[in-house]
What we know:
Layout: E1 12-16, H1 21-37, E2 40-47, H2 62-80, E3 89-95, H3 98-105, E4 111-115, H4 122-127, H5 130-137, E5 142-145
Parallel strand pairs: 1-2, 1-4, 2-3, 4-5
Helix pairs in contact: 3-5
Amino acid sequence: MNTxxxxxxxxRIVVGVDGSPDSYEALRWAADQARLTxxxxxxxxxxxxxxxxxxSAPAVDAAYDAAHARQVMTEEIRGVLDRTGDVPLEExxxxxxxxxxxxxxxxxxxxxxxxxxxxxxFASLLLGxxxxxxxxxxxxxxxxxxxxxxxx
Length: 152
């Protein structure tokens, strides 16, 4: 029996950004949806450290990469969303595969929003796109935003 003493679960919409026009479209769509539903918007970006899994690149400072990734994402969000004051917004940057990062972030979320195509190239043809992996493995419903869906 529910006595109403527990606070209602906060609504969360998770959106992935990667610097691509499609991810910006997904960000606009997710912000509009958060505004309509009163949800908190969680913007997630993923990065990897060059050379972390192989010997093809020189060693880099992982802390610098995280700070740089966070700065770039903050600038992208500000450039895409002209008004966020009416939507609670959190920014998250995590090291790892984008599909894995977003799938993990989707736990407990009401919705996961991704663009239909990101910055991936030939590798995404071999490994499957981030949007496809999210649709298959996310813990919540997934919206894949196609180009031309939102007003710019």
